[in-house]
Specification:
Layout (H helix, E strand, L loop, with lengths): L1 E5 L6 E5 L7 H8 L4 E7 H17 L3 E7 L8 H13 L7 E6 L1 H13 L6 E5 L2 H7 L4 E6 L2 E8 L4 E4 L9 H18 L1 H9 L2 H6 L1 H18 L14 H10 L7 H18 L7 H11 L10 H6 L7 E2 L2 E9 L2 E8 L3 H5 L1
Parallel strand pairs: 2-9, 3-4, 3-5, 5-6, 6-9
Antiparallel strand pairs: 1-2, 7-8, 10-11, 11-12
Helix pairs in contact: 5-6, 5-9, 6-7, 6-9, 6-11, 10-11, 11-12
């Protein structure tokens, strides 16, 4: 088992990576927190695959498990769904002496984590991510949120889990298109901090990648750990993890979270901003082409959709805005990034 500690002012916890760790979840929860009832928040796709199994695992350890399943997809990260989750937690009689488990991808982790942060002013929770992007990124660091019609993750908080348990076996049931979509986050980490991982990703075929997936997960999380521990609340260095997100979130919002998935939108954002920064001499020549090659390898888009001017307008409704300025993440070269603060009137120059 690979273990990675996260040391923060608010809470110190560990990430545990092991194939088959889900079968030990009941025992693992007991070591982390003495709870009576366990509310498992998941989505209906994950429930169909693992619902009975997870309930049985928890029941064997003497817990009283309750499963709450929401519709799959980004649209469930909403106030409407959140209220429904609150009501189910009330019906289950969940108290602050109990625990919430988020079992699913990034949407479930964000939604369930925010429910845990706000229900009864805070119920302990554990992340059990089932998608690649959740395993390498969103399950760690304490960012929890729901979306508004006006923008992504506008209602949220920082609320750290008690622990994160990562079972790479979940990826075996992930459809190839979803796996490839989540590879956008792996590519992000390679380009902002790890040139060696970029080179491995370029060389690997799918079988080699899956054989090495535990190490890929660990590498990505270790990168995130360095940023989160230095900047838990996202005021400085942690913003580097937003490479591609400024434009990517705008693409998602413009198409009402329907046409492009999160990974696809972020891929477009990473490539477009890198092409622009390369053109104006801020990024090493050829970086954009190498990024394009890797995105193409995993079937990810890179070209800006039509109506780009309208899409860019959505950038201004972004939590990274600070007054009349916005922070964007640029690459110097593969494995080295920096934050640039630009004025609102400069946005078209960087994104159009």
């Amino acid at each position: 088992m690979l273990t990675l500690p996260i040391s923060l002012n608010e809470r110190t916890y560990s990430i545990h990576i092991k194939r088959g760790i889900m079968s030990e979840l009941g025992k693992k929860i007991k070591k982390v927190f003495k709870a009576g009832k366990v509310a498992v928040i998941t989505d209906k796709n994950v429930r169909a695959l693992y619902g009975k199994e997870i309930l049985g695992i928890l029941d064997l350890e003497g817990f009283k498990p309750h499963l709450i399943a929401v519709e799959p997809g980004e649209k469930s990260k909403s106030i409407k769904t959140l209220v429904r989750v609150y009501r189910e937690l009330i019906n289950c009689n969940i108290t602050r002496s109990d625990i919430i488990v988020t079992l699913g991808g990034g949407v479930v982790g964000d939604l369930g984590g925010f429910a845990a942060a706000t229900f009864l002013r805070g119920v302990p929770y554990i992340q059990v991510p089932t998608s690649l992007i959740a395993q390498i990124d969103s399950s760690v660091g304490g960012k929890v949120a729901v979306d508004m019609m006006e923008g992504k993750n506008l209602i949220g908080s920082f609320y750290q889990p008690m622990a994160v348990f990562i079972d790479p076996n979940f990826l075996d049931t992930l459809e190839e298109r979803f796996f490839n979509d989540d590879m956008a986050a792996v590519i992000k980490y390679a380009f902002i901090k790890d040139r060696q991982m970029f080179e491995r990703l370029m060389e690997y075929n799918r079988e080699e990648l899956l054989d090495d997936i535990e190490n890929i997960i660990f590498t990505c999380l270790n990168i995130k750990k360095t940023f989160v521990e230095k900047d838990e609340r996202d005021f400085g260095l942690r913003k580097m993890l937003n490479f591609g997100h400024t434009l990517g979130h705008a693409v998602e919002k413009y198409f009402n979270y329907g046409k492009y998935s999160h990974g696809e939108a972020i891929s477009i954002g990473m490539y477009c901003i890198t092409q622009k920064s390369e053109q104006i001499g801020m990024t090493e020549v050829g970086t954009g082409q190498k990024l394009k090659q890797l995105l193409t390898k995993y079937g990810l888009p890179y070209e800006m959709p039509e109506n780009s001017a309208e899409i860019v307008k959505a950038i201004f409704v972004d939590k990274k805005s600070r007054g009349d300025k916005i922070d964007i993440v640029l690459l110097r070269s593969i494995g080295e990034c920096f934050i640039k603060k630009i004025h609102r009137e400069e946005v078209p120059a960087f994104f159009l």
